[in-house]
Amino acid sequence: MSPLETYRDDGVLARWLGRTLGRALPIPPTSLIALGVAALIAAIAITGDGAPRWVPGALVAVLLATAGASSGRPHADRLRWAIPSLLRVGEYAAVLWMAAIAGPRALPAAFALLGVVAFRQYDLVYRLRYRGTVPPPWVTAVTLGWDGRLVLVWILLVAGALPAGMYIAAGLLAAVLVGESVAGWRSFERGQRPMLYEDEEEEAA
Question: By CB atoms within 10 Å of each CB, which of 63, 117, 134, 148 scores lowest?
Answer without folding.
Answer: 134
